[in-house]
Design brief:
This protein is of the alpha+beta class and 447 residues long. The protein is built from 14 helices and 21 strands.
Length: 447
Amino acid sequence: MATVIPFQALRYNPAKFTGKIDDVIAPPYDVISIDEQDQLYRRSPHNVVRLILGRQYDGDAPSDNRYTRSAKTLQQWLDEEVLVQDAHPAFYVYEQEFQIVTGAEGKRQKHVRRGVLGALKLEPFGMGQVYPHEETFASHKTDRLMLTRACRANLSPVFGLMPDEQGEVVKLLAEAARGKPTVEVREPSGIVNRMWVVDDPKVCSALSKACEPQKVFIADGHHRYETACNYREERKANDSNPGNKNPRPYDYVLMMCVPFNDPGLHILPTHRLVHAPASYDEKKVLSKISELFEVTDAGDADLIALSEAASGPVRFGLLLAGGGKKVLTAKAGVEGAMAKIAGKHSAAWRGLDVAVLHELILKGIVGLTESNGNGNGNAHKHSVTYTKDVREAISELAMKGTYSLGIVMRPTRIEQVRDVSLNGEKMPHKSTYFYPKLLSGLVVRKL
């Protein structure tokens, strides 16, 4: 049973902050570059980047650092009523309208994704109804834990998915989003973000009940979720009244719940640009690949179409240095080869395009090893560059000498995320890219 409840959010007070609401919102902390951080700082003295990703300075010390400054800024904004708390517990229906470029002609298609921001009761992975699908890294969790300790708040939502087989959550969200939104933010990219405050007790109760029978699969924000679990254990250990069994604010985490059947739910592929080891020989690699894959010549349009097609057998686009293009389609032997080298994993995991790519091609044929990569056996950080733009990948490989080869990926299907997660497994790094990202700053939840 998933426990999702309304809460009293801290939200920006239009009468107090400078500029427009667009000026104070920011992307998730983990996609903000140094240059983007500077731009957000300049955009408004009240931009939420000062909370979620404050600047670091050479003279930082335990008593004065990015975390303590975030906490001080948060308290200052509360004192000055830049941020004010809603009077009543509420759910916050969050809708994003966006476009995706498709086809060789670059046609733009409009999509709308809708979910609900609420407080999800925390459960350790593997002990309840909350399932991860990606690995996490200790350094990221340490960073977020230090920020949570200092601010005592959920500053950004975790992104979760719910099956909602009966469509009840979709129906309730559509009804709640009929009127004028409470907040509307347009990003520079053109994505329109709308939010409705839903504080009617009957509607809130109906939403909570509709979420109860659902499992929750973490789409984005694994580090934030695990940090929330770790923070809860710290708070419980220091609780002055440990006999009180009533739920505390730190027993929950800020969560955006999106139904599986929402028509705007999109997973985009992440393409690979590879610097191969010195031993790389293109002809030998193609020969070995042909033992496991059907290799056919391709054009740009074929690769663009492949990057948008999620069904069918395991398939990749292969980009060769200097502009050669191929499509690789798995032969019958791939399944047996994966079972032999990755037998500890389930059939669902072994059937992932990205798993086949990493195990059979990048590691088994191209020769990327732990020493080439980041030590996690998946991402090969120092040998692989990632891009969401298939056209960029094609153009990069056309410039001979930049990369040894490139891989055009297909999107991972939501059913694959579900099946791998239910098996208690984690997908290889960069398996999913849920688009668009959730903004930070629409709501903050106090702990």
